[in-house]
Specification:
The complex is a heterodimer. Chain A contains 13 helices and 14 strands. In chain A, the strands form three sheets. Chain A has a six-stranded mixed sheet, sandwiched between helices. In chain A, strands 2-1-4-5 form a four-stranded antiparallel sheet. Chain A has a four-stranded antiparallel sheet with strand order 12-13-11-14, covered by helices on one side. Chain A is globular. Chain A is an alpha/beta fold. By secondary structure, chain B is an all-alpha fold. Chain B has one domain. Classes of the chains: A alpha/beta, B mainly alpha. The interface between A and B is large, with 51 and 35 residues.
Amino acid sequence: MPDREPAGWDGPAILVEDLHKSFGEVQALRGIDFSVERGRVLGLLGPNGAGKTTAVKVLTTLLAPDRGRALVEGRDVVRSAAAVRELIGLAGQSAAIQEELTGRENLEIMARLYHLGRTEARRRAGELLALFDLADAADRPAKGYSGGMQRRLDLAASLVARPAVLFLDEPTSGLDPRSRIGMWAVIRELVAAGTTLLLTTQYLEEADELADEIVVIDHGRVIAAGTGEQLKGRIGGDVVEFVVVDPGRLAAAVDAVASLGDGEPTVEAGDGRVAIRVGSRGSESLVLTVRQLDAAGIRTEGLGIRRPSLDDVFLALTGHGAEADSAPAERRSRRRPRAEAGVTRRDGTR
Amino acid sequence: MTAVALAAVDVAGPPLRERLGRALSDTWNLTRRDMKIWTRNPAFLVFAIVQPVMFVLLFRYVFGGAIQVQVPGGYVNFLMPGIIAQSAAFASFGTAIALARQMQRGVIDRFRSMPMARSAVLLGRLVADSFRMLVTLLVILAVGYAVGFRFENGVLPGVLMMLLGLAFGVAVCTVSAYVGLAIRDEESVGSFGLIWLFPLTFVSAAFVPVSSMPGWLQAFANNQPVTIVIDEMRHLALGGALVEGAWQSAAWLAGVLLVFVPLAVRSYRRA
């Protein structure tokens, strides 16, 4: 699919080395390294404030790093920013489309801004509208589109110039589950066509679905990297989870199920939640858990199997939950990098 | 992760001629885009046409009777140059709000990640807003003529008055562009980002003679750029000395552009 095959480079499509970036006192990136081979998909996984958006902004030439370097198809994002922009597509966290304009107009104008001729712009817009299942709504103002349609239009806009490397910053944030699955299908098709893709996400499931390789970042550092399988292997797969109704029986409940999991069960004393890592023995362990708890006469709520989440990854890798971080920091930093220092200090999280 | 240091590929940018051509076509495409958006949004139409016309009618018929002025043709002739300048200045609300909204929604980020001329987003916006402002000014002028305003000094000075009003509006637009890009939040810009425009336009010779204000306020009103520009516009429309005001107006407008264009460009680059 990429028709501007970048010349003179046979290294990875994306190469990031020792990247640092601070906003005032807040160190958004504290030396990250990773690389993505051509045609592969990298999932950058982490909670809000981990530095994902900052990394994407550096790679898409929007922010200059303080230290280290980032190459896209061998072009330095600072020294050869103009050349990098010729090669990339970016879809950010919000749908960067113009609501007053129709889907077709949005895409045609993007195509013109990518210096396609008038006829070619029209043809490309039509092609993308069909590809993204927007042909029926093509001539209606985007204001009336659903959230999922707006995100698809936004993604289409980032593909107008057939980028060799595509960056998607949380492509499904704010979408309902059905639109999310629809978006996954679209992204999979793109990847099948050979586009190199870097996507950020807060969902292990999403990274697992779409990415060949996952890099987990936290507080601006890479804390793990590998395939989805490798990561899940480190976390221990499925989790059986329940809440003990009577706080006095919590210890008894933990004793009852202690032998079922890989390692000690995790207990959140606050709400009486117990989580047992059970590897791939999900259903079997569920039945055993019910039996043990029943035998011990312990009443529970919300008993069930949970697939591993970002929280579990973080728990396994860092010993703290993903949500423990000051959640809005990164989102705020998108708008006002300088305000972040104050915010973080007040929360006392770093 | 890579053990061997790979040398980056250095790529020369396109030649100057091609870059200039691109800057022009990018600017024009964004101008068309911004104008199209404007025509689709009823709120913008109300803001650009209905509101200024209401101002003309309010001042002509409600406040006008109470304001004593010494100009040929009475208050309506005094009012029109002032209200044209004020409307041009207020048209810059659109500039600030549109840029703040685009910033907030990631449109500017996307533009900055594209192989577009860096200057095009701001230039295209200013060109589109100048067109929009021109429409507003012509509508106001037509309404003014309907309620009794006349150019008393001939056609050419009349045209020059309109152009000065437009140039003034463009200068204010660059300030608003900076405000919109710096504040980056549509709602904040809408509620307080342009509050400075009120004292600047109302504490001036726009609607009342400065001599009717208390002495301490006159000192400000007489020496601030809005009054200087409006006095010059009045002299163009109704007759009077032109040379000194022309220099002063040109100096102020150039000064505003010199300060705020680089500021706006800087906030765009750092977005």
